[in-house]
Specification:
- This protein is an all-alpha fold.
- Helix content is 67%, strand content 0%.
- The chain has one domain (8-20, 28-72).
- The protein contains five helices and no strands.
- The longest helix has 12 residues, at 8-19.
Length: 73
């Protein structure tokens, strides 16, 4: 049984749902997370999930997180 690569929608939903487990200001809704995932790429978002959650928990905006991830590539 091979693992399926999650879709952009699944990754965005996971980030959106996980954000609720952190004491994080919610800067946007699930649709914004989908735009974010599509912007940085599904693989990048999935492989940097903990980093993304950490940056959001420190109050970074999605724009800042996007910029940091793109600089890191």
């Amino acid at each position: 049984m091979s693992k399926k690569t999650p879709t952009a929608e699944q990754v965005a939903a996971a980030i959106f749902q996980a954000q609720g487990r952190f004491d994080v200001p919610k800067p946007c809704g699930e649709a914004s997370f989908l735009d974010f995932v599509n912007d940085v790429g599904v693989e990048v978002a999935r492989s940097n999930f903990e980093k993304i959650m950490g940056m959001l928990s420190w109050g970074k905006s999605l724009e800042e997180v996007t910029r940091k991830l793109k600089e890191g590539q």
